[in-house]
Amino acid sequence: MPDQSQTSKDERPNNSPTEKTQPTTNAETKAPGKNTGPGKANGKANGNDPAPYDWVTQRSACTLPKIFATLRAEVEKDVATRNSLRPNIAPYEFSMTDDINTFTVLLKANELQRSVVFTLADHAIVVRDGHSSDQANDQANDQATQMFEVTLAFDDAGKCRLKVDAQEREFWQVRRMALEELMFRGL
After folding, report:
1. Of 148, 152, 151, 155, residue with least CA distance to 177
2. Averaged over 52-68, what is the pLDDT?
3. Is 142 a residue whose pLDDT tops 60?
4. Cα 129 to Cα 113: distance, rounded to the nearest angstrom
5. 91 is in which domain, residue-wise?
6. In a domain, 21, yes or no
7. Average of per-residue pLDDT values in the chain
8. What are the Cα distances from residue 27, in Å, to 78, 144, 156, 158, 170?
9. Count of domains for the chain
10. Within-domain flag for 34
11. How much is the pLDDT for 138?
């Protein structure tokens, strides 16, 4: 017969180290309406009242400027990682420039310069195929072509969602959509 003095996995209190205590954007959160009642954790009474869902704090993290800052930091890591993967004698290099509401990822090679531009707009984060030039063919394209827009939605589960063309995306998917061709095609 099993020892009844041991606590099963399902009977751990809410402050168990195996549970997430700091929900973040696009990560699993304790969603509204998921409380199983006062004094209950995982459907078991434990004498502790669960904290109410703090939707205001979660929603305040789901703003374009905050998501733009996160995206900028992650793109900067992507650029550093991609540069570290280049051969020692590579004739190209990736770099990043930024301004208050814009940052640009640049590919520079001997006769070629291409870029992807991320801009924080009022309604979205706009991603454009930026200025490119091909000195060998004396062609220059000063017109930036919009690739896509990233919008946000705070859903009924209390999660901040990035959307591109009405489809939910993770941060890494947005970065791949923007940078994959620049970083990997034709090199």
Report:
1. 148
2. 96
3. no
4. 12
5. 64-184
6. no
7. 79
8. 20, 33, 14, 10, 10
9. 1
10. no
11. 41
